[in-house]
Amino acid sequence: MLGSAAQTAQACTGIFLIAADGTAVHARTLEFGVDLMSEIIMVPRGYARAGTTPDGKEGLKWTAKYASVGMNGAGQPILFDGLNERGLAAGLFYFPTSAGYMPYTPADAGKTIAPWELGSWMLENFASVDEVKANIGNIVVPSVVFSSWGFAPEVHFVVHDASGKSIVVEYVGGKLNVHDNPLGVLTNSPSFDWHMTNLRNYVNFSMTNVPPIQLGTVKLLPTGQGSGMLGLPGDFTPPSRFVRAVAFSQSVFKPKTGKDAILEAFHVLNQFDIPKGSARDGEKDANGNVQADYTLWTSASDLKAKRYHFRTYDNSQIRSLDLMNMNIDGKDIVKVSTKGDEVIKNLTPTTDGLKK
């Protein structure tokens, strides 16, 4: 069932905000058709890695130069989303029907990693977007079957750093494409350059209300606030979410501090929260289940304070971890559960004025 859900999961949305005090915040949702059982993991400095290859040979070896923290999935010791101690952030996004990984030969094994390992490789080795751009061409990222799912996941990545730089990393047609990402937004297919071109279809977008229009003797007034965004697509498809993510992340008032930016990011991503059943397949899978993407979790990374914030479908309370107050020189990965149900606080006063 996990494999069939992974084939249809394609609804993640990412944004990038920069506060007036210079704090950069990477924030995103992650959608899937089943619970990925994500945990928070902290990968310490010095942690040894070996990449996965298509033919089972040992891939690229590296030792983590920088500690990192974020969210994993499917029990893997790698980050689907996170940040490192230098303020670099990376997020994996599904990229169905568009990803086309690099060719592979056994001679490439020593410089090869699997697509899902790319985020951890970047976070554990580099301090900035410029460093990623300078080094990512030195590795081979081919199609590798993820054994738990029985197929090779199609993914691409957004990468941000504390200075405010942002890129998108994609493999299309067997080639590496690194796109500068001036608006900091990413969703899913098609490729990033297509989404940026598609924005030209919304040149009438405005943060302010449109003025009345006079048609002969008839004066047409907007029906209410928000007329500048009239016509923005409201569905859950990747192109529509990309347009809305640009509109909302660019139109919010600039947050003053990192904390303000974190809270603003969660408000923006409220617009992309998918309830169970709203984005579903038309037929049941082999197990008789209807597959439906929903928002498993939403995260926001403060790249200045190196704090990772998150909430889950079952608990909208924002929780956080401070990477620099963890044992980043430890010997092994630290796991922190994301489990927990929503707490509804009762504020009903009793007859004596107290609350139960």
Structure overview:
This protein has 356 residues and is α+β, with helices and mostly antiparallel strands. It has six helices and 18 strands. The longest helix has 14 residues, at 238-251. Mean pLDDT is 94; it is low at 1-5. Residues 12-334 form the Choloylglycine hydrolase/NAAA C-terminal domain. It comes from Pseudorhodoplanes sinuspersici. InterPro entries: CBAH/NAAA_C, Ntn_hydrolases_N, Peptidase_C59.
Main sheet attributes: strand count, strand direction, barrel closure:
8 strands, antiparallel
Query: Order of strands across the widest beta sheet?
Result: 11-10-9-8-7-6-3-18
Count of the separate structural domains: 1
* Name of the CATH first level: Alpha Beta
Count of DSSP E strands? 18
Pfam families: CBAH (PF02275)
Keywords: Hydrolase
Family: Belongs to the peptidase C59 family.
InterPro entries: CBAH/NAAA_C, Ntn_hydrolases_N, Peptidase_C59
